[in-house]
Amino acid sequence: MFSTNKIKVRRVLLKRLKLYFFLSIVLLAFSSCSSYKIITDEIVEADNIDNVYNFGKYIWSKNKDSTLVIHKKNLQKIYRKSKTSSSLYFGILHYYSAQLASKEVRTAKNLTFSERTIVLSYVIEFLYKCKSRFTKEDPHYDSEFIYRFLSPWNNNKFNAELQKNDYYELELLKEKHLKYYRSFSEEDKMKIKKTRSD
């Protein structure tokens, strides 16, 4: 009888130990994940410039190991909420894209150029997805957001990054970039390269 109780106690202890081990792994995995913030109407409706500069935390974050994480669920939510370009969700994403591509880096300062290219790629992909829902009367119906990548001060640098990473498998981005980057004449490309090297 004593040995039967010992066996039962061992089984209970073994189950608890397995449970403790499992919970430890779950907690460790959870703590190593980036802090994912869900975008809400209140956040988008806040009418201040800090809102735009801090908007990135809803689009991307970094894990403890400094791996960049794109918050696709928030980008999907922006897409669902953006039926016209007058949507606040679309407006703030559009403005954020301009800040990311700006010559003067005022937002997302802790991103490397490569990381900034990844984030901007996803933002532009979703701007095009939003635009696909707009009517012809919409002021952004004919907008080409890809020009964010084609500015003279970083055209070739962005181009190299996008091609090296096969456009991060973002189909609209690749289609638009190839269409418009190739539309520059060789003379224009040389001028841009010269401007970049000066």
Descriptive report:
- This protein has 198 residues and is mainly α.
- It has two domains: 1-32; 36-197, no CATH class.
- The protein has nine helices and two strands; from the N terminus they run αααββαααααα.
- A hairpin with a 5-residue loop joins strand 1 and strand 2.
- Helix 4 (72-81) packs parallel to helix 6 (113-131) and helix 5 runs antiparallel to helix 6.
- The longest helix has 31 residues, at 2-32.
- It starts with a helix and ends with a helix.
- Mean pLDDT is 76; it is low at 23-34.
Labels describing this entry:
single chain; elongated; 3% strand; mainly alpha; 198 residues; 9 helices; two-stranded antiparallel sheet
TL;DR?
This protein has 198 residues and is mainly α. It has nine helices and two strands. It folds into two domains: 1-32; 36-197, no CATH class.
Structural class call reads mainly alpha
**What share of the residues does DSSP label as strand, in percent?**
under 5%
Shape: elongated
Strand order of the largest sheet: 1-2
- Count of alpha/pi helices: 9
Q: How many beta-strand runs? A: 2
Q: Which H/E pattern describes the elements?
A: HHHEEHHHHHH
Helix content: 55-70%
Low-confidence stretches: 23-34
The major beta sheet can be summarized as: 2 strands, antiparallel
Q: Output mean pLDDT.
A: 76
- Rg measurement, Å: 24 Å
| N-to-C CA distance | 89 Å
Q: Tell me the domain tally.
A: 2
